[in-house]
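Propose amino acids for all 73 sites.
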């Protein structure tokens, strides 16, 4: 094998290694993104539930104002 072929072979090997590392990084980032979305969805459900509980508690705890005519009537 000539020197030029050896250089090309080495460059191809380096590119293959780089592509493999990039593929692994993409897989890791994809998994991290999936976990982040699961966390966000769980937090949204929790927030919705807490909002509903707060609304229900507020209805019970806050007295309704009486509807009366103003004094000048």
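Proposal:
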């Amino acid at each position: 094998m000539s020197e030029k072929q050896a250089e090309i072979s080495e460059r191809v090997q380096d590119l293959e290694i780089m592509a493999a590392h990039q593929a692994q990084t993409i897989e890791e980032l994809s998994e991290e993104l999936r976990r982040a979305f699961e966390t966000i969805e769980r937090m949204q459900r929790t927030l919705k539930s807490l909002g509903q509980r707060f609304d229900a508690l507020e209805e019970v705890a806050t007295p309704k104002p009486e509807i009366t005519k103003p004094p000048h009537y």
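The helical segments are 3-61. Residues 1-64 form one domain.
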